[in-house]
Design goal:
Elements: E1 19-21, H1 40-46, H2 49-64, E2 67-74, E3 79-84, H3 88-91, H4 99-113, E4 115-124, E5 130-136, E6 141-143, E7 158-160, E8 163-165, E9 170-174, H5 180-183, H6 185-202, E10 209-213, H7 222-238, E11 248-252, H8 257-260, H9 263-277, H10 296-319, E12 329-333, H11 335-340, H12 343-362
Antiparallel strand pairs: 1-4, 2-3, 2-12, 4-5, 4-9, 6-7, 7-8, 10-11
Helix pairs in contact: 2-4, 2-9, 2-10, 6-9
Length: about 375
Amino acid sequence: MALFGSKKVNATPAFASAPVQAAAGSAAQVGQFYTYSVGASQELALSVPTVARSIQMIASMVGCLELKHYTTQWTGSKYEEIYISNEQWMDQPDPKVTRNFIFAQLVTDLILWGSGYWFITSRSQATGRPLSFQWLPAAMVNTVDQPGAQRFGPSDNITFNGIQLNTDDVIQFLAPTQGLLYTGNRAINTAIKLQQAADRFAVNEIAAGWLQQTDASEPMSAEDLSELAAAWRNARQVGAIGALNSVITFKEFSADPNKLQLVEARQFQALELSRTTGVPAYLLGISVGGYTYQNAQQARQDLYLLGSKQYLDCIEQTLSMNQILPRGRYVKFDVSDYVYENNLANVEREADFNAQNREDEYS
């Protein structure tokens, strides 16, 4: 993907015919949002702050990028990109939602599930090529011929919410790696368990400890001990003062509060999830030695190269295939604006420029 500008010429769109709405039939469930769901496993994964933040950073980047339409010309030594006018769908793939929404949802599916899906809602009458799309939640799509986590190619047997779809009407985006819900399953489950353990101590209104009988009392059964502990807990929740007789004593745990909150374990698990998502740890607020950057522009470049590029390439190359665009025409994201046109960097350069001018005036 080039980050430098190339010359741009005007050209008529490859297909500008009036859109034709795709027939419902087998796709009757498409567009009925009351049946839509992203799945319990995705909701659970997004409840982990590190996972949610990683996806937010990548999705926000992909959602803000514009598509550029181009063809190539051989100059004798290399291919030169010649930009041409965008098709209508390149600026707004789904006329009902923003480009930010549909691309952000698509890249979220690519990260979590390893694949994403668009349904073709209209085609050109002249060429039969797609004119508009609609996002399909990957959690509701079942590839019958490839039921596992690994995708080996486009599926020839797709169902959506249990209803068969015509594969010619479905754009299949295949991520270069398996989804996070498969590769990071253990890391996500561990992070959730650590959070649940910390929550138990956070909501405990009394000091953790145990009740112990003295030698001057008769041994109590397990049932009696359970009832005594429950009564003690309930009484302490009602009032701060507790009362025990001479044969029962309360002993408090002497554990460090930091250990009870599992701070180090949760910090390490956050680092594990950073490795799994591919987003640099320092961008997620995780303190790790060896991760440094010069400025905000460098941070953007790291997010692009280490976290987002594999998904951007997947989307670009899928949307440039012959089933969508004529042979020899391609689309790509305009990454240069995101990486280099950094307002913070511009402010710094402007401040340095003004300071230099003041020095020159006084000298």
